[in-house]
Amino acid sequence: MTIENDEKIKSDSKKLYDATEYLLKKAKELGADAADCTCDLGQNLEVSVRMGALENVARAENLGAGLRVMIGKRQAGATTSSFSKEALDELADRVVKMARLATDDPYCGLADSSEICKNTQDLGLYDATQPDITWLEQQALAAENAAMAIDKITNIAGCGASWDYHYKVYGATNGFIGGYGSTDWGLYVAPMAQDGDCRERDYDMSAERFLSKLKPASEIGKKAGERAAKRLNPRKIASTNAPVVIEPRVAKSIIGMMIGAISGSSVARGISFLKDSLGKEIFASSINIVDDPTIIGGHGSRPFDGEGLNVSKQSIIKNGVLNQWLLNTSAAKQLGLKSTGNASFAQGGPHGITISNLIVEPSDKSQADLIKMANNGIFVAEAMAPSFNPNNGDYSVGISGFMIENGILTFPISEITIACNLFELYKNIIIANDLEHKGTIDCPSILVPNMIIAGE
Predict the structure, then answer these.
(1) Which run of H or E residues covers position 99?
(2) H or E segment to which residue 395 belongs
(3) Which residues, listed in sequence order, are joined to residue 60 by a DSSP beta bridge?
(4) Which residue in 105, 239, 246, 421 is a FRET match for 404, CA 20 to 30 A apart?
(5) Local confidence band at 430 (pLDDT 50, 70, 90 cut-offs)
């Protein structure tokens, strides 16, 4: 392992700031009324192993600049992967010409200069530790060995370790320019269990901003192996309606369906099943959901949003009530509101809408408590091929997991589909306390008192 000094990040920062400032100045010189620019530099190192041997090493680097310009209410954008003066000049010239020919967009424009972020904070997103290939290989092999040590594990579907680094700069002619660096470390293993002709796969992983916070490779491998072995010889069950307990890694995908539904662009177009729910109770009164971009080292943390606006912790759901839409500047204009600081970064185009660290706050109930409350139902361990209608909230997904009988997990099950309407699901779910901060959406286990279960 090596520790780099700050010279690397200083060099990357200067390169991206210089390109951003140059493109904004050039766009104005060519006749743009307004412009914004996002420049990004990234590096990735990934190692995969298979059955005790190095399988693949991948190293990648990327450099990009995206420019968007506005002339009146017309806008256009494009990108380049070269930072030479000639390439930047060509990009600015091309985008300005494109904007002159574009159709009007009444909602395009930059954020007001009075709203832009004036002081950025260090959120602990950058780890200066840089691994070499040998170290990543050792971690992957350790995870694989731990998985293979579990009885019935006979093969590995995938195993690897990775490191990612990015530096991002955003600037606009409204006076904002800012940037920050971030790192991501990852380790995963997907073992395969076999008993006769039956084969089952499962996985575990760890992803962190800082190397020191990664879970031990042996712990990841052991957990993944045990999960795969427990799923051997699954049974099919008859179709029914019953309670369903859903573990966190699946539960967060169900909560994630809400993000598009409360996005201002979806609401403005009328394609959200929650479009009439602002200020109304859409969850049980015990449920609170926040979006917090200021968590130190958080997976989705950022010191400013994609349009250079201030960010802060937001109460999305308070005591079950939907408090706000997720808005960027364009969506806010359409709805007659103000941006909530949820603009995503965009290279050479209009900004989208995103969350940072969306967290469903835990209760005082354990996952075991939810299983007991379900009494007779199913426990969902994995989901695949979801189907979701954003207009009415109808949702279905194929799952595998375990049967719950008399409040206890019993035999494994598979080839099952569960279905419901998310509007009804959100109103009735019960939350557990097993919250872990593993991604940009974090949710504890949930109990849905009644779902349609399609089996044999």
Answers:
(1) helix 85-101
(2) strand 394-405
(3) 44
(4) 421
(5) very high
CA–chain centroid gap for 146, Å, is 28
Q: What is the pLDDT of residue 3?
A: 40
> What three-state secondary structure class fits 82?
coil
pLDDT, average across residues 242-258? 96
Neighbours of 255 (CB within 10 A): 22
CB distance 417 to 400 below 8 Å: no
* Average pLDDT, integer, range 49-76: 96
Query: How buried is residue 355: exposed, middle or buried, by Cβ count under 10 Å (0-12/13-18/19+)?
Result: buried
What separation, in Å, do the N-terminal and C-terminal C-alpha atoms of the chain show?
A: 53
Strand pairing partners for 403?
378
Q: How many CB atoms lie within 10 A of CB 343?
A: 28
Amino acid at 259: I
pTM surpassing 0.90? yes
Which domains does the chain possess? 2-225 (3.30.2290.10), 233-253+362-454 (no CATH)
Instruction: List 401's β-bridge partners, or say none.
Output: 380, 413
Query: Are 400 and 416 a contacting pair, CB within 8 Å?
Result: yes
For 272-292, the pLDDT digits (tens) are 999 999 999 999 999 999 999
